[in-house]
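quick one, two chains, predict together pls
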Amino acid sequence: MARVVVDVMPKPEILDPQGKAVLGALPRLGFDLVTDVRQGKRFELQVDGEITDAVLAEIDKVAETLLSNPVIEDYEVHVEDHSVSEVAHEAGRA
Amino acid sequence: MKVGVVTFPGSLDDVDARRAVSIGGNEAVALWHGDEDLKGVDAVVLPGGFSYGDYLRCGAISRFAPVMTSVIEAAGKGMPVLGICNGFQILCESHLLPGALIRNDHRKFVCRDQRLRIERVDTPWTSAYAAGAEVTIVLKNGEGGFVADEPTLDRLEGEGLVVARYLDDNPNGSLRDIAGISNERGNVVGLMPHPEHAVEDLTGPGTDGLGFFTSLVERAFA
C-alpha cells in the first residue's frame, strides 16, 4: 500500500480570507514573526500496489477534476515512499 | 412552461424556488439530484443552500451528481438554466459559467436586502426587466465573492455577459461588483442574490425578484 499526497493551494493572485484570519490571530497570541499565511488543503490518497506512471497520471486527473478547482487553485502531487512506521523502523536500524 | 427545481442533499431554497416558479406563472417540477431524468422540463433552476455540506468546495460534489449530467447536456443544447447562490457555485464548478465563488472578503456571512442593477435582459431569465433596472433582492451568502482572471472579467464585460451588478455597497468582495453572469448564448445564468425570496410583499423586501420567474412565460408567448 502506497500513499500519494495532493496539496491544493489557492492561486497566489486569489484572495485567501481564511489565511488572512489566521494571520490576524497570530499577533494577538504573541507570535510576531509570521508575515503572511495562505491556507490550503492536503489530501492523502491510499493506492493499492506499485506507484506507476499510469497511477500517477490517474491521480493527476483526480486532482485536476475534483480535488482542486483550476480556476482558483493550484495543486501538487507527490508520492510518500514509506509509511511512517517504515521510516521509524529504518531510522532505528541505522 | 415546466420548470424543474433540483433538490440536492443540503439544498435549502428548493421549496421557495418551486413556489416562486408557480407564482411566476409556470409549472414547478421537483427534480432529484440522484436521478438523471429531467422529467420533460423546459427549464431548470439550481437552488440555493449548502449542497453536500459545502464539503471540498461549494458545489464541487454536486457538480458530479447524476442529475447534473443531464442538466449540463441540456444546457449545451440551449435549455434555460438558472443557478441561484449555491446553484451559481455549481454552474461555475460545472464550467457552464466562467470564474468561481470564494469566501466573502470580510469573512462574515451576509444577509440583507441588496440593491442590484440588471444589465443583461436578453436572457430567458431576465427579459421581464428593463435594461439598467435597479431592483432590491435578498442576498445571503458566506462564499459569494465572484473571482475570475482579468482577461475573463474583460471578456464578461466586453461581451455584455454580466447579468447583474451590486449597487451601493459590494457585499462580498466580488470583482467588478459582479452579482450574476451568463454564458454567451444567455440560456445559462448564475446569480448570487435570491430572487425567489423577493416574489411576494408578505415576505421579503418586495417583488423585484419575480421577473426572473415571469421572464420564461413572456418568452413563451412572445
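The longest strand of chain A covers residues 2-10.
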